[in-house]
Amino acid sequence: MENFFKLKEHNTNVKTEIVAGITTFMTMAYIIFVNPDMLSTTGMDKGALVTATIVSAGLTTILMGLVTNLPFALASGMGLNAFFAFTVAPQYGWEAALGAVLISGIVFFLCGVLGIIDQIDKAIPTSLKRAVAAGIGLFIALIGLVNAGIIVGDPATIVALGNIKEPNAVVALAGLVITALLMARKVKGAMLIGIIITTVLGMFNGVTRVPQSLGDLVGAPASLSPILFKLDFPGALKLGFMVIFSLVFVDMFDTLGTLMGTSARAGFLDKDGRLPQIKGAMIVDAIGTMLGAVLGTSTVTTYVESSAGISEGGKTGLTAVTTGVLFLLALFFTPLALLVPGAATAPALIIVGVLMMGAVTDIDFDDFTEAFPAFLAIAVMPFSYSIASGISAGFIAYPLVKIAAGRAKEVHWFSYILFAISLAYFIL
Known about the structure:
This protein is mainly α. It has one domain. 67% of the residues lie in helices and 3% in strands. It contains 20 helices and four strands. The chain has a two-stranded antiparallel ribbon with strand order 1-4. It has a two-stranded antiparallel sheet with strand order 2-3. α3 crosses α17. The termini are far apart.
């Protein structure tokens, strides 16, 4: 273990790495409850989704540790799962959505192997990358508020405040307050703890089913058969280029941002500001997406929560392997995951929205040619209930305002291709 992970070379030890891995798991284990709850709205089997979420996260995180010797963990990505459930799946079914995820993973893999990622990275303006993250944050928060019954549809005002005295809303609001207080206190695993406490609170007003035996908490994992290998490629191709591109785009830049941002804070970058193992990390991320699609879950991506373990001293792949093993052990708590109601996961969605909105601070709102496309991307996502539509709106606006301002030289040639594709997306 010492020689394989080069612990002494990285100035760390087994105990530190294991503690770091446990910390990372605690901070991102909420996905075990949130992801199945969200994807099950498409008609997918929730028990199978719990298993797929855990297995894809566990295996891909272990692979990250073994291949790159980096302390990063992966799981089904927040935002991407919302895109899957509320934008892609409603068009041609969840089987087509899984097919689209697999295709996006293959494209991502090829981009990583062929070195195309660097070129795409240069073509997309930073303001739009940050806007996409912020827009997805608002979109996820809206889903959380709707799931909680706090925000409801209204024919007169489009949306309105729901009945917050209703049991689901009461439990969700209590959970939101609890989770927010835990986050403010910087408690590790705040969202996971918040979900568990909220689930327990729901037992007192009928929102959560009360377990009747130990078998309602611990047991064998649910079968994957209802969703395993259920891929509809003809349906996926009908979704069109923009949907596939959106899946690749969000995964690619989410991963790049997480890897580079976290690595910079952790001191993993070389003297030129590069992460030496980034190509391997991106390829593992792409493999995770392909594996997730085959198992039956949405895009798997690198988690920014990995920074929690890194802050505890995690520096090598042993941290990731530890996190991955803990995910696999969680398979035996599938019955517990199935007890968690939507009201208990809604606060986590809202909190994730808060965290993702932080990306707006990197957008130059004093420059209208940067602010306008970014604002459109952010606003259109939640208002149209579509991440792809938000991305397309930003891609259309960016070259137009730059040309109008006499700053066409700032527009990368690839941006004009994205403009044309996005325009076709809306028209066709």
